[in-house]
Amino acid sequence: MDLFKTHVNAFFGKKEPWQVATITASSTLLLVWLYQFVSQEQSITERLKKKFFKLVRYVPSVRRKIESEFENIQKTFEDDMMKYGDEMGYIVKLPEDGWHRKDILKKIDDYLELGHYKWDEGFVSGAVYNFDSKINELVTKVYGKTAYTNPLHPDIFPGICKMEAEVIRMVAHLFNGNSNACGSITTGGTESILLACKAYRDYGREVNGIEKPNMVIPVTAHSAFDKAAQYFGITVKTVKLDPKTYQVDLKAMERAINKNTIMLVGSAPNYPYGVMDDIEKIAKLARKYRIPLHVDACLGGFLVAFMKRAGYPLPKFDFSVKGVTSISCDPHKYGFTPKGSSIILYADKEYRHHQYTVTVNWPGGIYGSPTISGSRAGANVATTWACLLYHGFDGYVETTKAIVDTAKYIESKLRNVDGIFIYGTPVTSVIAMGSKVFDIFRLSDSMNQKGWNLNTLQYPSGMHICVTLMHTKDGVADNFIKDVETFVKEIMKDPGKPVEGKMAIYGVSQTIPDRSIVGDFTRLFLDSLYFTPKKPKKLSKSGGSKLEKFSSIDNQAESTDVTLMNE
Ligand SMILES: *Cc1c(COP(=O)(O)O)cnc(C)c1O
């Protein structure tokens, strides 16, 4: 201490008081800045790279080039959207007089005709998991009865709340939750994941005093975790995969954990490869470091829960594993409910409390809401409840068996196709392909031209099919296999040929080091979804080539209009 004093006095000895003050203040500020710079989760090289690309964009020639590229891309996206429905015209303001309901229903059919993929014949990966006229009739009726209900008002609609409570109990039971298990119905997998992340952020802060939260997740974890991180100010630490199994690398996961880690994640299974992480081993880490563990079973929840009974036993992945603190699973995927239905489950009420949002000083009253929405569609609760009861345990065992049988069949056939390989070991319904000899996007492109809508993967390049009940129908799987075989054979005649067309853009985008540019492209794409032309053709009530065939109905509609007014 004396030595320290001598040194400091020697340093400041000849300085004037104002100098002492200034030096002290500025060096403290510098230290704080340095500490903040070094202590950020994102690596210094990563941040320097970002800074560099940002600076490069200030160079006028670079900026002009990028801007003109953006204009081209925007035009391409917009033309792509125009291709659907420009002919029909656009509605851009409210009609003076309300439309007749017959006209509305007819127009809906026209709009639904716009897409060209035959999703109802099994040409599409994932997206629509089943389309069954009986279920459709049931959910339409249930929706009709409950369309105006709202669980935000439990005093007015206690029956809807009862349904939600029952759905949670049924699903918690499927995942081996005990009587402490609890949860909420949400609008989709993304909301379920957002809520788990929100709950753990607040739990981390309030119980463990974590102010700079991070989550440690496999690179394959769904992008909803990244969304949650962006929304809630959490840093994402992604963990690489084991190159053989495509499961998360557990050693790397352990290294990524630090005192600010609020949650770990494993997928059962993941979206890109349909591979299930080793949940039991991740849970071991979770217990060792006392960190909550979320298991994302959004995609495969309504398969994995029935696999054992369907004849495909799996390693443990649910609440029977000590350390698993929450599970997300989506009825609107393999539960075959209409879209807008997911479940977030917790092993314990303590976590769910941190999910809630409570405002106690608002002049509008004390306001507590369990999920992200305020008002919620009671009809989503009711249709979910109805679908679960309609299928029952055996019903889901049957659909699971049909789907997994088909997926295994496709997988086994694809493994024999010379030139492609399968990523890891698919456990449920997703089968991902890659190639070491040709650009796999050429296969994507060919399949697409044949009417298949599959999903593209990057880092590394790949494509996958997510098998649904639509693919279990006679001939669909064989048709798919035959097309893959034929195209791969064709491609293998000249495996070095580069990919052309749209898929080339996808390939190139992976090689753009400035990811913020890829982000900007993506924003333009999203813009194009909201596109209407500056001078839109008016949507005529009977105009447009596709609509002409309805003109006779149109006349009918006019006459019914009168009748209805008199009703
Ligand atoms: C679909 C999916 C989600 C997100 O679900 P949404 O309902 O699309 O929001 C999350 N995780 C996995 C593995 C998924 O496949």
From TrEMBL:
Which major enzyme category is it?
Answer: lyase
Cofactor dependence is on: pyridoxal 5'-phosphate
Species whose genome carries this gene:
Polypedilum vanderplanki
Molecular function terms in GO for this entry? pyridoxal phosphate binding; sphinganine-1-phosphate aldolase activity
Q: What is its EC number?
A: 4.1.2.27
Localization per record: Endoplasmic reticulum membrane
Which family, according to the similarity comment? Belongs to the group II decarboxylase family. Sphingosine-1-phosphate lyase subfamily.
GO cellular component terms, A-Z:
endoplasmic reticulum membrane
Q: Tell me yes or no: is Lyase among this UniProt entry's keywords.
A: yes
Pathway, per UniProt? Sphingolipid metabolism; Lipid metabolism; sphingolipid metabolism
Record keywords: Endoplasmic reticulum, Lipid metabolism, Lyase, Membrane, Pyridoxal phosphate, Sphingolipid metabolism, Transmembrane, Transmembrane helix
Topology relative to the membrane, per the entry?
Single-pass membrane protein
Q: What processes in GO biological process is this protein linked to?
A: carboxylic acid metabolic process; sphingolipid catabolic process
Q: Which residues cross the membrane?
A: none
Its recorded name reads sphinganine-1-phosphate aldolase
Modified residue N6-(pyridoxal phosphate)lysine is at which positions? K333
